[in-house]
Write a structure and sequence with these properties.
By secondary structure, the protein is of the alpha/beta class. Among the domains are: about 30-330 and about 365-400 and about 465-480, Rossmann fold; about 500-530 and about 620-690, no CATH class. The chain is elongated, with a radius of gyration of 31 Å. The longest helix has 29 residues, at about 665-690. The chain is built from 26 helices and 21 strands. It has a seven-stranded parallel beta sheet, sandwiched between helices. A two-stranded antiparallel sheet has the order 1-2. A two-stranded antiparallel sheet has the order 3-6. InterPro entries: 3Beta_OHSteriod_DH/Estase, Lipid_A_modif_metabolic_enz, NAD(P)-bd_dom_sf, Reticulon. It holds the Pfam family 3Beta_HSD. GO terms for molecular function: oxidoreductase activity, acting on the CH-OH group of donors, NAD or NADP as acceptor.
């Protein structure tokens, strides 16, 4: 699995979180999946079948919570305080009013940010089937109508679910892939946890590609918010098509068969982006491009067309929402990727001139855009205007792409991007990387982040007009961009720069002592002092033409002279305190002697262990490291002493620091190289066995 990274691993997509994410080689979800607590799945490319890891099948155990007898119904939680459903109460009295100011006031209570797990099993009668949950809710005496949110455990979908529950107008059925719903502590103590206990919300496990499961999830629902989609960074056309197109067909058919009245589809602005030309203040009149940027955009456009064509079929009203570059608390892609880039020293780069504008949208504004669409479709006059149409949703505050990234990085205590790399320089490199991927993908090479399409995404304009949504849906952003950025940064205290200190592998290798501080430049003063001493040694050994004995004698003389003068200095010179060197500084204690002896013996034993592992021939990473080290030593030994001293010093003082900075990338490249070698070796071995 070769992994070629750009200096900006956050390059891919700023869409809402999606519940379909698969790993080709490991049974786990990646951060790009945006599925917070979903099942871990993998995709078999040969059969195009999806499998769940055996170890994670069945109910998921919640951290810090004892297992519950799943034969017993969920206990009813504490009664919700009076007035807690007041959020959208004003909309009930006049559902036809598109007044944006009224809606803004009505939703103000929704914008309060809300992080161990409560697990609700899908086997429970109140969560497993639509019929069961309806009966349980009726028995509980709860009010409100049912709506369904597909992909309901995704990033933006979670915020929509919370907003709908806060309104008090809806019971929400959360539909997602996972066999059970896992709540974090905030959700358990918040509206969703209370709603699940009181029958105001329910969870149903459903795969959009299974028509029967989808129909079962939609039973008795009045509205469906279709938000589920695979992660846009997955390079698998079959997956995107099966979910975004075939899955959307199933959603439409289920809506019709279950007599659902309104379907709101979460689309993407990428459906009008060709991957080449930037978009500035684009509106809904923009046509679909002849060629899309990727398979995700193409299949989302196909799904959008299906939803718009379905409008009016047997009374079903539809519309499509295109939220632009979503961000906010709970995002598992953008901010963590930015921090990872900053820690690796990659966030300092700007691709292009840095003047390209983007429309970023705070996640609660995205949820509110969906609510506005549903409200408009629910009125007769609004349905005549909005049904069968698409709407861009943004914060209405275009901002320079790299300025937005800088504000997040600075807010978390990291350095702003400042080094500009022209697109003309990066594009040829991206084409080479893309060509390499096409050649080595069959050997397990991962999809690279540095591709021509992503270079264009990072350097072009992508802004959109919200005029249609404002005029026809009554949409106005509830949370301004500045406030959204503030809430986002505050929601990631664990990612702040001051909390990121960890011991690197390079530091461990160097003993975590003064040697590590010197070679890793942790103590700049100490490192510079050592470099000056090495310069003096180099001068006497190689530049002056002295013999080795003469050079050593002069160095010892200089050392003695320095110590004598240092000892004669007063305690304070021109206001600067002079730290005296005590004789004890030159003593070697028994503890230190034992430590040195122990270090030598440990190093020897480690070398013997490495040799034993090499003899077995099953540790390719170790073999590559040893081979590379021996190659460096052989090159240095073939040089003159003078050249070897200069090159060796430069390597020591830069190599360890470079490895510490790009540790993950280097380790990943070594691992991927080993995977390719093993794959080639196994292929040759199998072919030779067949010949025999």
């Amino acid at each position: 699995m070769i992994k070629i990274e750009a200096p900006f691993p956050f390059a891919h997509g700023f869409e809402y979180l999606r519940p379909y994410q698969f790993s080709n080689h490991r049974c786990e979800t990646s951060l790009g999946s945006h599925l917070l607590h979903g099942p871990r799945l993998k995709l078999d490319h040969e059969s195009n079948q999806i499998h769940q890891c055996p170890s994670l099948q069945g109910p998921i155990a919640g951290a810090g919570h004892p297992p519950r007898n799943m034969d017993q119904p969920l206990t009813k939680g504490p009664t919700r305080p009076e007035g807690s459903h007041a959020g959208l109460a004003s909309h009930r009295s006049d559902r036809s009013s598109p007044n944006p100011r009224a809606r803004q006031v009505a939703i103000q209570k929704f914008t309060q940010p809300r992080s161990a797990c409560l697990v609700v099993s899908a086997s429970n009668p109140t969560t497993a089937t639509a019929a069961g949950e309806m009966e349980a809710a009726a028995a509980g005496g709860g009010g409100g109508r049912w709506c369904v949110v597909t992909g309901g455990r995704g990033f933006a979908a979670r915020h929509l679910v919370t907003m709908l529950l806060r309104s008090g107008e809806w019971r929400v059925r959360v539909a997602d892939l996972a066999p059970a719903i896992a709540l974090d502590r905030d959700e358990e103590e918040g509206f969703l946890g209370a709603a699940l206990r009181e029958g105001q919300a329910a969870y149903v496990s459903a795969d959009l590609r299974d028509k029967a499961q989808v129909a079962k999830a939609f039973e008795g629902a009045e509205v469906v918010f279709h938000m589920a989609a695979p992660d846009s960074s997955i390079n698998n056309f079959h997956l995107h098509y099966s979910v975004n197109v075939e899955g959307t067909k199933n959603v439409i058919d289920a809506c019709i068969s279950c007599k659902v009245k309104r379907l709101i589809y979460t689309s993407s602005p990428s459906v009008v982006f060709d991957g080449v030309h930037g978009i500035f203040n684009g509106d809904e009149s923009m046509p679909y491009p002849d060629k899309f940027n990727d398979s995700y955009s193409e299949t989302k456009a196909d799904g959008e067309k299906l939803v718009m064509r379905a409008n009016g079929r047997e009374g079903l009203l539809t519309c499509c929402i295109r939220p632009s570059s979503i961000f906010g608390p709970g995002d598992k892609l953008l901010v963590p990727s930015l921090v990872a880039a900053a820690k690796a020293g990659k966030s300092k780069y700007i691709i292009g001139d840095g003047n390209n504008y983007y429309d970023f949208t705070y996640v609660e504004n995205v949820a509110y855009g969906h609510v506005c669409a549903e409200k408009t479709l629910s009125s007769e006059d609004g349905a005549k205007i909005a049904a069968g149409k698409t709407y861009f949703i943004t914060n209405m505050e275009p901002i320079k792409f790299w300025e937005f990234m800088s504000l997040i990085l600075e807010g978390l205590g990291y350095e702003r991007p400042s080094i500009k790399i022209p697109v003309s320089v990066m594009m040829p490199v991206a084409h080479v990387v893309e060509w390499t991927y096409k050649k080595f993908a069959k050997y397990g090479m991962k999809v690279p982040q540095l591709t021509p399409s992503r270079i264009r995404l990072l350097s072009c304009n992508r802004t959109f007009s919200c005029s249609r949504a404002k005029d026809q849906l009554g949409y106005e952003p509830l949370v301004p961009l500045k406030e959204g950025l503030k809430r986002t940064v505050e929601s990631y205290p664990h990612l702040r720069a001051q909390n990121q200190r960890s011991i690197s592998k390079a530091s461990v290798f160097l003993g975590n002592g003064n040697l590590a501080k010197t070679l890793l430049w942790e103590d700049t003063k100490q490192t510079v002092t050592v470099l000056l001493l090495l310069a003096v040694i180099y001068y006497h050994l190689f530049t002056c033409g002295y013999t080795f004995i003469t050079a050593m004698a002069k160095l010892l003389s200089l050392t003695a002279l320095f110590l004598f003068i240092h000892g004669m200095l007063p305690a304070n010179v021109f206001g600067h305190k002079v730290e005296k060197l005590e004789a004890s500084n030159f003593h070697i204690t028994q503890v230190e002697a034992h430590h040195v002896a122990h270090s030598i013996s440990s190093s020897w034993n480690s070398a013997v262990g490495a040799l034993r592992s090499l003899c077995r021939g099953n540790d390719w990473p170790l073999f590559l490291k040893v081979a590379l080290s021996l190659l460096v030593v052989s090159i240095l030994s073939s040089m003159s002493s003078q050249a070897a001293f200069k090159i060796g010093t430069a390597l020591v003082f830069t190599g360890f620091k470079a490895y510490e900075k790009w540790e993950d990338t280097i380790d990943s490249m070594v691992s991927d190289a080993c995977s390719i070698l093993l794959h080639i070796g196994s292929t040759k071995k199998s072919s030779s066995q067949k010949q025999m």
